[in-house]
Amino acid sequence: MPIHEKSLIRPENLKVQEKLEIEGVDVSGHWSTFIESRVVTDYNEALEEEIAALPGGEFIHRCWQCGSCTNSCTVHALNTDFNPRYWIYLIRTGMEAELLRDKDIIWQCVSCNKCTYACPRDVVPEGVMKATAHWLELKGHTPKSHSMVFDEVFSEQVFKTGKIEDGFTVRRFFSRTGQALQQPWLVEMVKRLMQNLPLSLLTRMGLANVIKPRTRNWAGARDAINEYVAEQEKQHRSALGLDELVQMAEAEVKDGVAKRA
Ligand code: SF4
Ligand code: SF4
User: How many CB atoms lie within 10 A of CB 98?
Assistant: First the structure.
């Protein structure tokens, strides 16, 4: 629902005087309830451009708010607060503070892409959810999600060797996210693999753990990919004004130190 259809009377906006008497009439408690006025002063006019600058967010401007993405969404069916159409509306109207109220659930998109198939305007809402989660992390509003850590581990390995080795990816992912490797589901999966896979394949998988597979003559491709990734990261930082934010924070810290000296 667009924000104007949503109740903006939130518990924190309700003010109640525990003891209040007006012209001899006791209006304490519930009788003195008033709603604090709400003024939006924190628009981020660049919000749509910032999301559009990140991978997946490119087509956000096409959205005409039909709601098909939310209606078809797997996560919305479980939690109605998860609402891609509403977040796209907030982004396009620059309502950053409203978007941040939902910062802890936006990353929950499971990338099923039902929304992408339902969207009549080719907005690719799944991509917009990814871009928004990425934006939240880059701006420091949320910690890096496990999904982002997995993407990093996966990409690092492909960039480095030109191949992917599942065991190494899983081990590194668990280590970076501070999780124990001996997950019951993982132990069960390994047991079943050992029972059902041919011995030759198991041997190859075991060897891949020791001698990491590499694509021959990969160095040229690796350098080109790394150069491209660095260029993209630079563009994203610039679109989000991250370097300016860091400079401002550093200046504030210096200022604080100088004042205390
Ligand atoms: S389905 Fe597409 S056009 Fe419709 S609200 Fe979602 S993103 Fe916008
Ligand atoms: S990709 Fe994400 S936003 Fe789209 S339907 Fe699936 S869970 Fe919902």
Answer: 19
**Does residue 107 carry a pLDDT above 60?**
yes
d(C-alpha 217, C-alpha 93), whole Å: 49
Ligand 1 atom nearest to CA at 118: 1
Angle at 3 between CA 69 and CA 126, to 5 degrees: 25
* Coil vs helix vs strand at 21: strand
DSSP secondary structure letter of residue 34: E
For ligand 1, say whether the CB of 47 is within 6 Å of any of its atoms.
no
Residues β-bridged to residue 21: 26
This prediction's pTM: 0.77
CA distance 15 to 13: 6
pLDDT in tens, 113-166: 999 999 999 999 999 999 999 999 999 999 988 888 998 999 999 999 998 888
Helix, strand, coil percentages, rounded to 5, for the chain: 60, 5, 35
State whether the beta carbon of 65 lies less than 6 angstroms from ligand 1: yes
Q: Are 242 and 138 in contact (CB under 8 A)?
A: yes
Q: Which ligand is nearest to the CA of 68?
A: 1
CA distance 59 to 123: 5
Band of pLDDT at residue 205, cut at 50, 70 and 90: confident
pLDDT in tens, 4-33: 556 667 788 888 999 999 889 998 998 888
Listed in order, strand segments (DSSP E) in 13-137 are: 14-15, 21-22, 25-26, 34-35
> Do 97 and 40 touch, CB atoms closer than 8 A?
yes
CB 135 within 8 A of CB 240: yes
178 phi and psi angles, rounded to 5 deg: 65, 30
Residue 124, SS3 per DSSP:
coil
